[in-house]
Design goal:
- It contains five helices and eight strands, in the order E-E-E-H-E-H-E-H-E-E-H-E-H.
- With 207 residues, it is an alpha/beta fold.
- It has a single domain, classed as 3-Layer(aba) Sandwich (Rossmann fold), CATH 3.40.50.1820.
- An eight-stranded mixed beta sheet has the order 1-2-4-3-5-6-7-8, with helices on both faces.
- Strand 7, helix 4 and strand 8 form a beta-alpha-beta unit.
- Helix 1 (45-56) packs parallel to helix 5 and helix 2 (80-95) packs across helix 3.
Length: 207
């Protein structure tokens, strides 16, 4: 399958930069990066691993920088503006997909919380992919409203998203279509990117 990579402009209430890796119009994923105030951006190692994993399965992928990061305009907005950024990025992705395409919303750490909140505003998606959802910092009751596929990944030595808390989150999800992957790592997944890619390739059907 042929692939093209292009920079895209995303219009939130700020002008955002993104990168689209176009493949099939039948499936796509938008991926949110970790916290902007702690060095998070769209080239983060975990974001890249998620992107590579889904691209290997034929998905069109969209990564982007939240407001105030890289060449994206504006400044950090305590998560509220970032939710709008994620929703706007989803809108750009949709334009590159068929109307009935399979759509995944993905995020890592702060980005997992943002994309899950953005999902409340999004009219149609099929799956959530959340890596190290920071459940010690942010509430997650809204996740119980989604009767869709939810995949959760956590690290055994993660002190920001401890496995005990992630398991409690996972256990209380009402959807029957859920997956939990535990990787022997800290919050940062250094040297464990291939395990994350392999989990995606083993779990997500090719499109």
């Amino acid at each position: 399958m042929s692939m093209s990579i292009e920079r895209v402009n995303i219009e939130s209430d700020q002008n955002l930069e993104g990168m689209l890796r176009q493949q099939s119009r039948k499936a796509g994923v938008v991926i949110c990066h970790p916290h902007p105030l702690y060095g998070g951006n769209m080239y983060n190692n975990v974001v890249s691993a998620i992107e590579d994993g889904y691209a290997a399965q034929g998905f069109t992928t969209l990564i982007f920088n939240f407001r105030g990061v890289g060449d994206s305009k504006g400044e950090y907005d305590e998560g509220e503006g970032e939710v709008h950024d994620a929703t706007a990025a989803y809108g750009v992705l949709r334009k590159h997909l068929d109307d009935d395409a399979h759509i995944t919303l993905a995020g890592y750490s702060f980005g997992a919380w943002v994309i899950s909140r953005s999902a409340l505003e999004i009219d149609r998606f099929d799956s959530l992919f959340l890596v190290s959802f920071p459940c010690l910092i942010y509430k997650y009751d809204h996740l119980k409203t989604f009767n869709k596929e939810i995949l959760i990944v956590g690290g055994t030595y993660d002190d920001i998203a401890p496995m005990d808390d992630l398991y409690e989150l996972y256990k209380n999800l009402p959807t029957l279509d859920k997956h939990l992957k535990v990787i022997n790592t800290t919050h940062f997944y250094a040297g464990k990117e291939t395990e994350l890619i392999d989990f995606i390739k083993e779990t997500i059907p090719k499109r």
